Amino acid sequence: MADYRIRLRDVREDRDLTQAEVGKLLNKSQQGYNHIEAGRAELKIDDLVTLCKFYDLSADYIIGLTNKAKSYK
């Protein structure tokens, strides 16, 4: 099972996005989003839903319950 913070970073980097870009999507600063990826802040459910829709990935994949990437739908 993958740590969701590593999965968040990997998905973001695979799509060539910066922390600032994803932070803006979540109404956070780059530093605020960095705190999530670094484990200094928890990922809120509302932010998880936003990321699922944005990346078109299931929550199970993003939080590391499965290694099979599926659409969030």
Describe this structure in words.
The protein has 73 residues and is an all-alpha fold. It has a single domain (4-61), classed as Orthogonal Bundle (434 Repressor (Amino-terminal Domain)). The protein is built from 5 helices and no strands. The chain starts with a helix and ends in an 11-residue tail after the last helix.
Q: Which terms would index this structure?
A:
single chain; 73 residues; mainly alpha; 434 Repressor (Amino-terminal Domain)
Give the full name of the CATH homologous superfamily. lambda repressor-like DNA-binding domains
Distance from first to last alpha carbon: 22 Å
**What value does the average pLDDT take?**
95
Supply the CATH class.
Answer: Mainly Alpha
**Secondary structure: helix percent:** 55-70%
Number of domains: 1
pLDDT < 50 runs, ≥5 residues = none
Sheet bearing the most strands, described? none
> How much beta, percentage-wise?
under 5%
User: What is the number of beta strands?
Assistant: 0
Compressed to H and E, one letter per element, the order equals: HHHHH
Provide the CATH architecture: Orthogonal Bundle
